[in-house]
Amino acid sequence: MTVTEPAPPRAPVPPLAARARTVGGSPVRDILAVTARPEVINFAGGLPAPELFDREGIAAAFREVLEETPHRALQYSTTEGEPALRAGLAARVTDRGLPTTPDDLLVTTGSQQALSLLATALLEPGDTVLVEDPCYLAALQVFGLAGARVLPVPGDEDGVDPAALEELVLRERPKLLYLVPTFQNPTGRTMPAARRAAVASVAARAGLWVVEDDPYGELRYDGAPVPWIAAHPDAADRVVLLGSLSKVMAPGLRLGWLRAPAELRRACAVAKQAADLHTPTVNQLAAARYLDVLDTHVEKVRAVYGERRDAMLAGLADALPPGSTWNRPEGGMFLWARLPGAYDTTVLLRQVVEQDVAYVPGAPFYAGEPDRSTLRLCFVTQTVEEIGEGLRRLGRGLGGR
Ligand code: PMP
Predict the structure, then answer these.
(1) Which residue out of 216, 244, 365 has the highest number of ligand 1 atoms within 8 Å of its CB and is therefore the one to mutate?
(2) What's the whole-model pTM score?
(3) What is the distance in A from the centroid of ligand 1 to the CA of 189?
(4) Which parts of the chain have pLDDT scores under 50?
(5) Rounded Cα distance, 67 and 118, in Å
(6) What is the DSSP string of 242-281?
(7) Domain 18-53+295-399 class?
(8) What is the pLDDT of residue 1?
(9) Whole-number pLDDT of residue 352
(10) Considering the chain, what percentage of its residues have pLDDT values greater than 90?
(11) How many angstroms is it from 171 CA to the middle of ligand 1?
(12) Into which CATH architecture does domain 55-292 fall?
């Protein structure tokens, strides 16, 4: 007979940090997980159309870099980013109306990293951050993880209301305002020039950092470009502009950039060093080469995406219940719809997904009181034919015709 020793006492491990416990994943993630099934027409994701990736062009850029400068391409690099990429990006930003030198830019691992770096560099736990309502979901996560108090700024179909913004700034003393002024995620809306000027002037008068996140601006299908808030002289010392190659080249490369005044940029570089030392060298060098042909590629993408937007707009009236409204974005990837008041798009998603089609309910995008009758549709990932079929399924899922 063997004598069993009593198990040694075990204490539980210490708990997760409070910030990790309070910021959860997305509540609709489980339902949307089924959208990975190939038969599902997925209007929920924010995915660029994979068949438009310039596989040949990008492969050629990687090949050249690895053949011509392998020792550099495979080596550690500087935290600020490869000089060739910073120079190429600075030239593009300058061409779009905002004079920029390579030194003004920090290359980031996607613009998502730029948001985290800014949170590290600017936010103490308890600091107030102002956001649009609704707001890009993963920005809400970044600010939540930083322990910030996130407050929505009232607005309308043109974005935040400058008068309401000024009142909130004076009352709540926020550190920063986060905006996606062009083809916003999730709504697709664009803030007109006059309102941008008004936001810049509130930031100047009241003392506020403005983070202008612009991953979609180059995807314009009609209408005229609107100048960046960062280009307003009033606010030049307090607007941080973020850009990304995800939507115009390929998100898998994880390449973005941040343009900020020197002191803040240096603080972000220190935060980046702690986060990942630098963005992958080979990706940066390949992208720097690819910038030579990027405009030609973006032109092709724009033509296709514009047709897809039009196809979705053409089919919505038959897919959504009578009394629904939606906008007509001039670019980007998303449009925003509002069903009649009695509809709750979070509740409805389950039965819609049974029809093998998906959207994202609007509620999680709100920092304030959610409008539960809203939803986001991505119109770029599917072909025109698939969009038509997806909208027929959506109509059935919503219990309509
Ligand atoms: N900002 C906004 C508004 C976005 O929609 C996204 C991607 N969905 C990002 C930032 C992050 O993009 P990335 O990190 O791929 O550059």
Answers:
(1) 244
(2) 0.95
(3) 16
(4) 401
(5) 36
(6) EEESTTTT-GGG--EEEE--HHHHHHHHHHHHHHHSSS-H
(7) alpha beta
(8) 57
(9) 95
(10) 90
(11) 30
(12) 3-Layer(aba) Sandwich (3.40)
